Amino acid sequence: MNLIEQSSVSRLGVNVSSPRPMRAAHAVETYSLVAAALLAVFYFATSIYIASHRPFWIDEILTVEIAQLPDYRTIWSAVTHGVDGGSPVYDVVVRTFDKLVGNTEVAARLPSVLAMVAGMLIVFDCARRLTDNLHGLIALSILTCSFLPYYGHEARAYAIYFMLAALSLWLWVHAPDGKQSSAVLFGAVIFLAVTMHYYAVLLLAPYALWEISRWKPWRRPSWKLMAGVLGAVVALALLSPAIVSFAPVAAGYARIAGPAPVDGLRAAFPTMFPDGLWLLAGIAVWIALAVTKDNDAILPQPMQPSETVGWLFLCIPLAGFVVTELKASPFMSRYFIGAMPGVAIAFSCCSWRYFRGAQRVTMGILLILATYGVAQQVTATRHPERNAPSRHDAKLEDALRKDGKQYFLVTNQARYLEARHYSKHPEQYAYLASLDSGDLHQTMALARYYPMHFWTLEDLKEHARETALVAPYPRIVETLKQAGFQLEVQSSMPLQVFYLQ
Questions:
Q1: What is the pLDDT of residues 152-202, one digit of tens each?
Q2: Which of 59, 155, 299, 392 has the fewest Cβ atoms within 10 angstroms?
Q3: What is the pLDDT of residues 64-101, one digit of tens each?
Q4: Is residue 5 a part of any domain in this protein?
Q5: Are 125 and 139 in contact (CB under 8 A)?
Q6: What is the spatial distance between Cα 160 and Cα 34, in angstroms, rounded to a whole number?
Q7: Are both 67 and 172 inside the same structural domain?
Q8: Are 162 and 340 in contact (CB under 8 A)?
Q9: Is the CB of residue 108 less than 8 Å from the CB of residue 97?
Q10: Is there a domain that residue 3 lies in?
């Protein structure tokens, strides 16, 4: 839907009879393109670096374990047995990169890095076509101030979901509405998005709300919306065995560990923009300092339909709240990363309407957003393992073997899967699943495809003197003491280790 058509002169907001302002405006346009390219290269390079230095966490390990199964049929079997709630299509993407690049953290995360950068550039292009290159750069910078850069180096489908959300909005706004090819492309993008992440079906919410707001009796929905609905329905139908198999696991997780939907909804936008209020305050202060009362260049223009559609993306978490309430699934803010392109484009369009004639204001907003985003990424690059799961400690393993310990017992499934993935001797690890209060369905399902060792208390009694208990929770220690085990603290750094008598 070509929602807004404006000449390049009107978008620049300059007087055509004045050559000098025109040349200056064109210089700003050119420099904005260069800046967008440099930011894309910067986030690509830093994300690759972080990906190569940050260990996998449990969800990423599950993705990799599924992707490395022998064939596609086995991948489908694993997903339909509830090993992971992710899409088998995304698992195939990771498998492809694993074959091409190698079995490394970078290979598994490279699809996300590429998708994040591509999505940023799509948002930039969409916004600049509606406004100008400088405001397109503002839209890109807004994304860098969100939680998007974190998911840009994670081996999960969120970054690809974001990229396809951005592409769907680009098609909705810029592709001609009357052409069947535009509708087919839009439907195909929605289909791909849902095959990557099931919650991408919520991308239809802002488009449907837009059409409902313009509805007239006997007026059919647009071809794009109908194609999008068809694409989503077909994707959900094809993947329904995987969705149905994981539904009980999702409900159990929501009941045990996930936030209540109401609490998740409250935290959704602060999670998407961790320092959003601080940034808005800084922008407001700058506007107050930069704008003068006699500046007649900042009279607001009417809101264009494209900006309205962008703001309607704020309804995606609300739609997600309804879905999670109906199907008793966990409410996770990352499930609604598809809202990011609309918010970024709407904000840049709003800034353009108010301040396109006040370049100092626009440049100040851009510098605040871009500086904050780059600073956050630099910090993440300098400390890539901050807040990450502990990478497996091979030296600790060697020390325990020297003490005659042949088995390393863990009582937490995340640590067990991490140890299995990173250890050179995963067969020495055992998992005391009977004392883990979490939902063990995924680990048990994964055991159909990989050798795993699940111990009971009887197994522990049989091998007590040969076993080291690694990083147990205090309640586990108390439970074992009550069961008659004598535990001796052997090490507390970097992990607490107990020997059993």
A1: 999 999 999 999 999 999 999 999 887 889 999 999 999 999 999 999 999
A2: 299
A3: 999 999 999 999 999 988 888 788 999 999 999 999 98
A4: no
A5: no
A6: 24
A7: yes
A8: yes
A9: yes
A10: no
